[in-house]
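Much of the work behind modern protein science is quiet bookkeeping, done one molecule at a time. The protein below has been through that process, and both of its lines are reproduced in full.


***
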Amino acid sequence: MPTHDLSRTLDWQGRTIAWDRFGSGPALVLLHGTPWSSYLWRPFADAFAERFTVHLWDMPGYGRSSKDPSHAVDLGFQSELFAHLLEAWGLERPHVIAHDYGGTVALRARLLHGTRYASLCLVDVVALRPWGSPFYRLVREHADVLTRLPPPVHRGAVEAYIRGASHRGLSDADLGALVDPWTGESGQPAFYRQIEAADERFTDEVEDRYGDIDEPTRILWGADDAWIPVDHAHRLHAAMPGASLAVIEDAGHLVQLDAPVRLAAELTRWTESVR
C-alpha cells in the first residue's frame, strides 16, 4: 500500500485541504468517507492516473487536512466544500467515485449545489436511513469523556472500531495508517468530533431526490458489509432507476482492502464504459 502523501493544499473558510493531482486525461475525483482518508484510494489513484487526471483529497477534519476544533466537519459543510473544490480545480463534469460519507457529499453537491458529473460511482455509501451505529450513539452521549481517554485506551478503541469495517481482516500496516490520523493532540478529539457531527438529516434532505440524478451511475457494495448492510445497496438501486448495481462477494465495508483486485476490475470496467 503506498504511503499517504498529498503534496498540495488549498485554503477555504479557514480550513486547509490537503489534495493532489495525478496523471492526464479526463478528470476523475475520488472521495473518501469516515473515519477514513484518501489513503484508501491512493493505490487506485495511481492506477487510474494512466488514463485519467485523478484528484485525491482529504476532507477537513480527516487525514492530512486541518483539524481545527472550531471548524464544522458535518456533511452539509463537506458537500458545500466539494462543490467549491470542483470550481477551484476547474472541473465542470468530472467522473466521481465515492465511498461511505463521500457518497453523501457527492449526492448533496449534485442535488443542492449545482454540480454535474460525467459519471458517478457509489461504493458502500451512506445514503439512506438508518445509518450510524451503537458506537455513534455512545460517542454523542459521552464525547467529552471519550476525548479525554488516555491515548493508549483511545487507540485501542479506534483500532477495534476500524477492524469491524473489514470482513477479511486488516494488516498491521493498513490498520496503522487508518488509525494514526486519529491519535495525538489534534487527532483524538477530531475522531470524536466528526462522529458527534453525524446526523441523518443530511441524507434525509436529499433522499427523495436520488431519482433526479441522470448521469450514468454505478452502485458497488461489499456483500458482507457489517456497517452498511447490502440491503442498502438494493434500496439505493431502487431509488435510482437509471443506476446499475454490482455486489462484491467476500468483502465488507472496507472493500478497497478486502477485495482490491475485484474492486479495481469493477471500477476499470465502469470507467471504461463511461469514459
